[in-house]
Amino acid sequence: MKTELNYINFLYKTHSKREVAISLSYQLFGQDLFSAPIILINHALTGNSNVAGEKGWWKQLVGENKIIDINTYTVLCFNIIGNGYDDFLIDEYEDFTCEDIANIFLKGLSVLNINSLHALIGGSLGGGIAWEMVAKNPTLTKLFIPIACDFKTHDWLHAQCLVQKFLLNQNDEPLQKARIHAMLCYRTPESLNVRFQNKYNEEQQCLESEDWLRYHGNALHKRYHLEAYKLMNHLLMNINTDEKMIKKIEAQIHLISVDSDLFFPACEIRMCYEMLKRENRDVFYHEIKSIHGHDAFLMEYEQLNTIIKNIL
Ligand SMILES: CC(=O)SCCNC(=O)CCNC(=O)[C@H](O)C(C)(C)COP(=O)(O)OP(=O)(O)OC[C@H]1O[C@@H](n2cnc3c(N)ncnc32)[C@H](O)[C@@H]1OP(=O)(O)O
Ligand SMILES: N[C@@H](CCO)C(=O)O
């Protein structure tokens, strides 16, 4: 499957009052627009609009005869502006918050004449942006499915992103080192200890776990821009959805957490569920059981497939 990048161009004034020429890129998969229900998927930190097909980051979930079946749905995915996938980078990244990205995605939907969605799904940072979108437009979607994320950045997440910021702003392999620290936030002690068992890699003269971390640092360095990572980290630090507005969301809400998530802990997502329940929202809570932590939403496909199949 090969789908092209499309662009929507407009001027946008950020919350910080900077006017920026935006070129919002997106990809469409499956059925032609307006011939089928539309599912918008918001990508996570280092993801992009290429959600399905050979190199699709969620090809286990999205595709022909997959749970998100492109024979049934039109799947739309925007690139978070400045992620570099469309060669567009942002230097003044601190001008943007998740609220700005939500406004930009909503403008994109409006330019495409999409007034309502069958489902809005977002993982991690993409889920944070999705929360900001539904808070701004409570009738936007029939189903709202935020995965491994919350409607705001809590202290713990902010603290991890602060360490990321320190690493990204120093000169010695900034992106590689930040990714190595981030991998520890995306996994758990048990995930690493069970997998690597203190095994030593004779060739590399280091623990297998260290080799794996270095591999991931270098792999991201090869495929990602430092400016883009700084922006994404800054956005993660600035998810700040208006709590009053989320109580007005009309969609059926399905919160999906990972029981071992160190980044967006399940206990916070459960608290959000309780709060929405008290407000009589149509809300459900699902939990992925995994030793792998936050990244389980990219690993535990059997569980995720079952959960999402029962929702759609
Ligand atoms: C969510 C979004 O919006 S998109 C972003 C999602 N994608 C990413 O985060 C990309 C980075 N990838 C990852 O973090 C992980 O690969 C995951 C989460 C996708 C899967 O995790 P795991 O199942 O633990 O995979 P793991 O990290 O061991 O291996 C991934 C690849 O790295 C390779 N690899 C891992 N460690 C090493 C090493 N030490 N030396 C060489 N290669 C290695 C594996 O062989 C594998 O290669 P393959 O994909 O060609 O088969
Ligand atoms: N590991 C994933 C998810 C982080 O939330 C990424 O790099 O995008």
Describe this protein's structure.
37% of the residues lie in helices and 21% in strands. The chain is of the alpha/beta class and 312 residues long. Strands 1-2-6-3-7-8-11-12 form an 8-stranded mixed β-sheet, sandwiched between helices. It has a two-stranded parallel ribbon with strand order 4-5. Strands 9-10 form a two-stranded antiparallel ribbon. The two termini are 23 Å apart. The site of acetyl coenzyme *A (ACO) has 12 residues, from helix 6.
Question: Mind sketching the topology for me?
Answer:
Blueprint: E1 6-13, E2 19-30, E3 38-42, E4 62-63, E5 68-69, E6 74-78, H1 98-111, E7 117-123, H2 125-136, E8 141-147, H3 155-168, H4 174-186, H5 189-196, E9 200-201, E10 206-207, H6 208-223, H7 226-236, H8 243-246, E11 252-258, H9 266-278, E12 283-288, H10 301-311
Helix pairs in contact: 1-2, 3-4, 3-7, 4-6
Features:
312 residues; alpha/beta; 37% helix; 21% strand; binds acetyl coenzyme *A; binds L-homoserine
What structural class should be given to the helix and strand makeup? Answer: alpha/beta
Q: What average pLDDT do the residues reach? A: 96
Order of strands across the main sheet = 1-2-6-3-7-8-11-12
Could you name the ranges where pLDDT drops below 50 across 5 or more consecutive residues? none
Total count of strands: 12
DSSP summary: helix tally: 10
Q: Whole-number radius of gyration?
A: 19 Å
Second rung of CATH, namely the architecture of the largest domain = 3-Layer(aba) Sandwich
Oligomer: single chain
Report the CATH topology name of the largest domain. Rossmann fold
CATH superfamily of the largest domain: Alpha/Beta hydrolase fold, catalytic domain
GO molecular function: homoserine O-acetyltransferase activity
Organism: Chryseobacterium potabilaquae
Protein name: Homoserine O-acetyltransferase
Enzyme class: transferase
